[in-house]
Specification:
The chain starts with a helix and ends with a helix. It folds into 2 domains: 15-187, Jelly Rolls; 193-399, Tetratricopeptide repeat domain (Serine Threonine Protein Phosphatase 5, Tetratricopeptide repeat), CATH 1.25.40. The chain has helices at 3-18, 75-79, 86-89, 92-98, 116-125, 193-204, 215-229, 232-237, 240-258, 261-277, 281-293, 300-312, 316-329, 335-346, 350-360, 371-384, 392-399, and strands spanning 20-21, 24-26, 32-38, 43-47, 55-65, 108-113, 133-139, 141-147, 161-166, 173-184. It is 49% helix and 16% strand. A hairpin with a 2-residue loop joins β1 (20-21) and β2 (24-26). Strands 1, 2, 3, 5, 8 and 10 form a 6-stranded antiparallel beta sheet that branches. Strands 4-9-6-7 form a 4-stranded antiparallel beta sheet, with helices on one face. The longest helix is centred in the middle third of the chain and has 19 residues, at 240-258. It is built from 17 helices and 10 strands.
């Protein structure tokens, strides 16, 4: 590559990089560049182009031109050397730098409005009622920065209206208005205090919130999580199924970050248990299977619960399979040994059941109950569900 070509490419890279910063950029696509001719004593207005979402500042430049005069450098080109609005807002020097180097002798007054109704009222009456900015002193050129602290950018506005009044009562006037918006990257995603409140409401409605000890931390992480994944407009366009899935994922991810995800899983477990106790055993099994095991959320205790469901439903083969899966997850959990002993008892493998009882009869389970106490409680439960009790006495004699 020749040195000359390298220098040219470097210049283009330099210009592109100085036109924006990591926090935002001057939007040189959705700009306003309008020229109007004012007759002597006439009033006119210019409506700006729609501001892009995330507009937090607006730079405008007004230039009065005589016949045959042309602006040498557009406002867009001037802003290429200013990486962000702070270079303008730090005093009048920045604004002076933006002024056109050419201007005519004529002068005009102008004002800025947020809606067309007030503009039409001004055109009729000449009164600047509800204007967010009024320049009553005639000027032949001006450049200003409007920020979110300005009355003109208060609220979620899409446009501004600039009204002009000729200060020449004899000749026509030529006025050029240029407007360039500054787009803040974060704000461009559409998540402002009002839209974030929508996410807060969603977070507050989650069932798991009742059991959280760090609610505010969860809310903050949830809002940040959804905001990072979706623009506000994208989130609003999700259909019901998509939105529910997105919320579920963000709830789980947020609770993992806040260290309380187990409480979310407990909500699922409790729902499953309620379903089973209300006679909806298939729904209970499906909930644990799809929401805990299939999604790799399950702990060894979930395998124990699922195995218990199958055992009480007399589906002994499935119960044995699930208990063994749980035992692989936690080989030291002797509750699985007790559950397997129950399965063996109900499937005519009494000798294998006896072997387990003899081996662990002096142990204490995670419930805090002794082996003997838990066996008796389990046998009572089995009788309620109509499981065969013929061999219960054989086991009780071993553990007594």
């Amino acid at each position: 590559m020749s040195k000359k070509l390298y220098l040219i490419l470097s210049l283009f890279v330099s210009i592109g990089s100085t036109a924006q910063s990591k926090d935002g950029y001057w939007d040189n696509i959705r700009t306003t560049n309008e020229t109007i001719i004012l007759k002597a004593g006439e009033k006119k207005f210019i409506k700006s182009a729609n501001f892009p979402e995330g507009t937090t500042e607006v730079v405008y430049r007004i230039t009065m031109l005589d016949d045959n005069q042309k602006i040498s450098s557009s406002l867009v080109s001037v802003l290429k050397s200013i990486p962000d609005p702070t270079g303008i807002s730090q005093g009048t020097a920045g604004a002076v730098f933006l002024l056109s180097t050419i201007s005519g002798d004529d002068k005009c007054k102008y004002a800025i409005y947020q809606n067309v109704i007030d503009v039409e009222n001004y055109i009729k009456t000449g009164k600047n009622t509800n204007a967010c900015f009024v320049q009553s002193k005639p000027i032949n050129k001006e450049a200003k920065l409007l920020s979110t602290s300005s009355k003109c950018l208060l609220g979620n506005i899409e446009n501004l209206y600039f009204t002009f009044e000729s200060n020449n009562w004899i000749m026509n006037q030529k006025i050029v208005l240029e407007i360039v918006p500054w787009v803040d990257v974060k704000s461009s995603r559409g998540w402002n205090p009002e839209t974030k409140k929508e996410l807060l409401t969603i977070a507050q409605k989650q069932e798991v919130v009742k059991s959280l000890s760090k609610k505010d931390e969860f809310y903050a992480i949830f809002i940040e999580n959804v905001g990072a994944k979706y623009k506000y407009s994208e989130f609003k366009q999700l259909i019901s199924v998509e939105k529910n899935r997105a919320i579920e994922q963000s709830v789980e991810e947020s609770l993992k970050k806040s260290g309380e995800v187990e409480k979310y899983y407990d909500v699922i477990r409790n729902k499953s248990l309620k379903l089973f106790n209300s006679g909806k055993s298939n729904d209970a099994i499906e909930l644990i299977t799809t929401e805990m095991i299939a999604k790799k959320r399950a702990s060894y205790k979930d395998y124990g619960v699922l195995g218990d469901y199958y055992l009480l439903l007399k589906q002994y083969t499935k119960a044995e399979e699930i208990y063994n899966q749980g035992l692989k997850q936690n080989p030291s959990e002797i509750n699985f040994q007790l559950n397997l002993a129950h399965v063996y008892l109900f499937t005519d493998r009494v000798s294998q059941a006896k072997d387990i009882h003899e081996k662990y009869s002096n142990q204490t389970l995670f419930t805090g109950n002794s082996w003997k106490e838990q066996v008796k409680l389990d046998f009572k439960e089995f009788q309620k569900f109509g499981l065969p009790s013929d061999n219960f006495k054989k086991i009780l004699r071993i553990i007594e």
